[in-house]
């Protein structure tokens, strides 16, 4: 068993033990990950929660190995309890086991349309219509569904401010809301009055059912 003389030497002792005991380390990581999969299993948890739980399992593995190598005097049960506590604190601060911030922000994009659809989006079929503080344009697709063409600077700098616009757009695509351009671009180029060909985020929105759903959620 390795005994280290002080806290300053602990990390060096641990890293040396890791290098000298590869098989033990691999088994330890596998054990910790299996434990987190079983113990931190949440029925409705999102992929993000599972990924974070996997990261915490590596912390647990490090703590358990440090105990096994004699670098700390912690009990294995104390290591597990400590890591579980940290994960629970993270989960509590996150506020939900479900959809990520991007998913929540995607819902806010739809809420923005519900609130401003008639006041800040110019109709593409009415050439005389002028909209103050314009956020974009609206039209109906071949299925009679409304499409809102949100100007890229409004989508990225206003609606998604403080968030990754790409992540939000990808979430909208997963929901079947984003009408994507060809290739990898999430924003489409559309020819718009006064603006010419401009990149926009084209969002499909059902004025009746979506508005009803927003009302129920609120």
What would the keywords be for this entry?
8 helices; 218 residues; 14% strand; 54% helix; 6-stranded mixed beta sheet; alpha+beta
Number of helices: 8
Q: What would you report as the Rg, rounded to the nearest angstrom?
A: 26 Å
Sequence of secondary-structure elements? HHHHHEEEHHEEEH
**Which residues form runs of ≥5 with pLDDT under 50?**
1-5
Assembly form of the protein: single chain
Strand content: 5-15%
Per the principal axes of the C-alpha atoms, what is the gross shape? Answer: elongated
Structural notes for this entry:
There is one protein chain. With 218 residues, the protein is an alpha+beta fold. Helix content is 54%, strand content 14%. The chain is built from eight helices and six strands, in the order αααααβββααβββα. Strands 1, 2, 3, 4, 5 and 6 form a six-stranded mixed beta sheet that branches. A hairpin with a 3-residue loop joins strand 5 and strand 6 (196-205). Helix 5 packs across helix 7 (165-174). The N and C termini lie far apart (60 Å). Residues 1-5 have low confidence and may be disordered.
Concise summary:
With 218 residues, this protein is of the alpha+beta class.
Helix/strand layout:
Blueprint: H1 7-20, H2 22-39, H3 47-68, H4 76-94, H5 101-116, E1 121-123, E2 136-140, E3 146-151, H6 152-159, H7 165-174, E4 178-179, E5 188-192, E6 196-205, H8 207-217
Parallel strand pairs: 1-2
Antiparallel strand pairs: 2-3, 3-6, 4-6, 5-6
